[in-house]
Amino acid sequence: MYELANSTHFHFSVQGLDTSAKLQVLSFEGLEAISSNYAVEITLVCDHLRFDSMQLLSKSAFLSFDGDRSTGIHGEIQQVRRGAVGKHYALFKVILTPRLTHLKKRVNQKVFRQQSVPEIIKAVLAD
């Protein structure tokens, strides 16, 4: 029910990440609106200085808000930036978005010449 003050409240897990490096959530900031995709920028601290941050890109991830890891945000890592590197830790910023965000990249253009509107509609619906 109550967590200790010195325990981690937020957890970040990446599917298929094979590493001994421990990723801890330092902070996160999200943006969500009606009729648009959410985006959450998560600042991570890693205790492995030579951690290859590019292995995070395009992986499924989960940011949990509670200790039992049942409530949180599922998504895909769209962007990774390496931050400051200290003596024992390195900072990373990742952007977590829904997997459906990739559909925005799809462009489908066709030119219909010398066809009537019903013919165009029939051709579009057939695709």
Automatic annotation (TrEMBL):
It comes from the Bacteria. Gene3D superfamilies: 2.30.110.50. It holds the Pfam family Phage_GPD. This is Phage late control protein D (GPD). It comes from Snodgrassella alvi SCGC AB-598-J21.
